[in-house]
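Quick note —
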Amino acid sequence: MSLTTEPKSGFDKYFEMSARGSNYSREIRGGFVTFFTMAYIVVLNPLIIGTAKDVNGQFIGENTDVIQSITMVTAATALIAGLMTILMGAIGRFPMAVAAGLGLNGFVAFTLAPQMTWADAMGLVVLEGLVILLLVLTGFRSAVFKAVPEQLKYAIGVGIGLFITIIGLVDSGIVRSGVPLISFGFFGELQGWPILTFVIGLVITIILLVRKVKGAILISILATTVVAIIIEAIAGVGAKSADNPLGWGLNVPKLPESVTSTPDLGLLGQFNLFGSFESIGVIAAILAIFSLMLSDFFDTMGTAFGLATEADLLDKEGNIPHFESILVVDSLAAVAGGVGSVSSNTSYIESASGIGEGARTGIASLVTGLLFLIAMFFSPLVTVIPYEAATPALVIVGFLMMTQIRHIDFTDYSIGIPAFLTIALMPFTYSITNGIGAGFVSWVIIKIATGKIKEINWLMWVISIAFIVYFAINPIEQLLGVAG
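Predicted structure written out below.
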């Protein structure tokens, strides 16, 4: 972490803005960019939580109308993301945004809810958050992070870079299941206007970045959105669907008929803390909490380290500033997600886009959080930006994070192989947790095989065994007779 000038005010001193070589302009731009690259969650989370049914065949909120459920989840998603991101900025003092976790929401909607009521499922999320908070307060979570070999930490950052790159490529439509990779060049083919829009956005981002234009990523997102709106107005592309596979992803870029909407916050507090223990039994409930917890536990650790490395915020010992506070807020976000009935909230790797724009402090998170709160009332405007306009930023930030690979010695197979598995499995399995788990377990196995057991920290033993249980959760459930 580089030190520059003396703080100009108490606010500056608290957030360490000058000490981290930043300024208000960078922080505000970074906050906006982070919001634009992850605002999709305000639309996507409701499509997952709001359209699923519980064991009684009810949509969340006990609504018979799916539209009403989606509307309620939209408002609660924006509210919880806004409050928790502001808390991350104010207490964690770190440029990392928080929102409903993708993957975790799918687990809640399609695995837990069909076995119990929505209130029971959200109670499990609250319990998971409380368990993680306890682990943070006892110092266990930080101790685990410090026990991880340094080069393996860098591998986590590189893997996350590739992970958000693949997110960008998939969301943009460049990479699609069952469709060959699109070939570029004079003899290649761009399949549809949205793909062309993504390419235009990527070119704009690259040009602005290499020319070191301030606000490059934010400018590219806004400029590409304008291009998308013009294309939609002329070509009438429409939304992507089975009948229209070359349509826009998530949002159709056109100016909305209405600018504002009134948020419905009726889902807040609709959880039953221990109802799941009656619904599916104690053992199954504990395994469900463990599955949720392990993903939350390591995703945030990996994300925070990757972001801190990219922002050059690590101290001389390789530690993240205010790490304990960051973890406390992240744990509270998991609890808040259950309380708000929107699934566990967690840190977002898309925050790297804001860091790429210059964000270095929690001020950027305050900006992002405020925008989420505003989005509750201006949700129609949030739905203007399509995937194809925002995802070029993720691809470029993935490149920036990829540069950390220079810190890894691949000539040493004992660290090179675990690092490779960590890096490869994150994008290929679409899971940060899977990559971290594969790296940890393989590192321990190699140490055992080479007679270097004494080099294994006891915490690495514990978390490696935990990951083995995590990977084998299905056969364990079947063995115990609690498989769903």
